[in-house]
């Protein structure tokens, strides 16, 4: 298993657990963290033994944002030339499912990274926010778009314009997170969800993810057509034949990923 400067990565069965590990900076997302995340997610995606991933931080912070100290001296020209933050598109290109398990602060880029996950499980200590306005900037890793799609205009606009934090209960009411669990149980609950996903037929898992994500990119008719075509396509897989036969024979399915 590869090692990373800013991440701790382990596998438990078919689940990859990735921990952000820059405690001295509350897991602020600098260039090294991004490079490590790109490499870790690519390795997860390419490993046929791995079927779901969990990304988490520490008890105090999932991530307190992009690294302000790294950005402070940068000019527009430098950021534009480097296409700063564009690398996160490689993280969102991960085809297999992954969950963000968030405890503590998920601010700015931290909130944005969590929203790149297929869903967020939150500890009751989680706090979400887009406080970039207080630094004279604005969300830069997709927050203005993903937060608005998740919670609607009113709350997204209020969060971006005031920089206030949303606690876990409010985040659940606003549909930003799938579920809130006690902080002490966050990793266990996230691993349980991930193990459940990992036990599903893998091609169907990817197809389900692609369909739901298509809802953010297409109109309703095109989205439904995309869904139906993918559904029809899944009917050509061995796992579809196995899944339906197993149901009829009242036994668990035995997946091949084919
Ligand atoms: N970048 C760099 N360093 C950070 C950081 C960040 N985003 N957030 C925290 N740190 C560092 C602090 O500077 C501090 O380091 P030192 O001990 O060397 O001073 C260390 O982490 C611990 O932080 P605090 O002492 O501030 O901890 P706290 O408990 O008092 O406060 C906090 C916690 C409220 C999260 C506070 O750290 C904070 O407000 N952080 C910044 C949050 C923020 O503005 N995030 C948005 C960043 S911009 C962005 O993300 C752009 C984008 O859209 C992609």
UniProtKB/TrEMBL annotation:
Q: Which GO terms describe its molecular function?
A: enoyl-CoA hydratase activity
Q: Does the keyword Kinase apply?
A: no
Is the keyword Lipid metabolism in the record?
yes
Biological-process GO terms, alphabetical? fatty acid beta-oxidation
Annotated EC: 4.2.1.17
Superkingdom of origin: Bacteria
Q: Which reaction does it catalyse?
A: a (3S)-3-hydroxyacyl-CoA = a (2E)-enoyl-CoA + H2O; a 4-saturated-(3S)-3-hydroxyacyl-CoA = a (3E)-enoyl-CoA + H2O
Enumerate the CDD domains for this protein: crotonase-like
Going by the UniProt record, its keywords in alphabetical order are:
Fatty acid metabolism, Lipid metabolism, Lyase
SUPFAM superfamilies, from UniProt?
Answer: ClpP/crotonase
Say which enzyme class the record assigns: lyase
What functional role does this protein have? Could possibly oxidize fatty acids using specific components.
The UniProt similarity line reads: Belongs to the enoyl-CoA hydratase/isomerase family.
Protein name as annotated: enoyl-CoA hydratase
Q: Where does this protein come from, organism-wise?
A: Edaphosphingomonas laterariae
Provide the taxonomic classification. Answer: Bacteria, Pseudomonadati, Pseudomonadota, Alphaproteobacteria, Sphingomonadales
């Amino acid at each position: 298993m590869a090692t990373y400067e800013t991440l701790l990565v382990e596998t438990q069965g078919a689940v990859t657990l990735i921990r952000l590990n820059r405690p001295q900076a509350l897991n602020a997302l600098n260039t090294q963290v991004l490079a490590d995340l790109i490499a870790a997610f690519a390795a997860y995606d390419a490993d046929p033994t791995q079927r779901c991933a969990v990304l988490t931080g520490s008890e105090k912070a999932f991530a307190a944002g992009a690294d302000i100290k790294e950005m402070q001296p940068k000019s527009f020209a430098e950021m534009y030339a480097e296409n700063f933050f564009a690398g996160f598109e490689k993280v969102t290109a991960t085809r297999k499912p992954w969950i963000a398990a968030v405890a503590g602060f998920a601010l700015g880029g931290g909130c944005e990274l969590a929203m790149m996950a297929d869903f967020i499980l939150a500890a009751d200590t989680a706090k979400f926010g887009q406080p970039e306005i207080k630094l004279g900037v604005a969300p830069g890793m997709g927050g203005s778009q993903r937060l608005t799609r998740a919670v609607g205009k009113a709350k997204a606009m209020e969060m971006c314009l005031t920089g206030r934090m949303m606690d876990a209960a409010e985040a659940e009411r606003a549909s930003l997170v799938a579920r809130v669990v006690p902080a002490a149980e966050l990793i266990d609950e996230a691993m349980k969800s991930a193990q459940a996903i990992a036990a599903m037929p893998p091609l169907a898992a990817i197809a389900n993810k692609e369909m739901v994500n298509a809802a953010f990119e297409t109109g309703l008719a095109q989205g439904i057509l995309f869904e139906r075509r993918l559904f029809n396509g899944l009917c050509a897989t061995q796992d579809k034949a196995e899944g339906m036969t197993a149901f009829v024979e009242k036994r668990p399915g035995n997946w091949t990923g084919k």
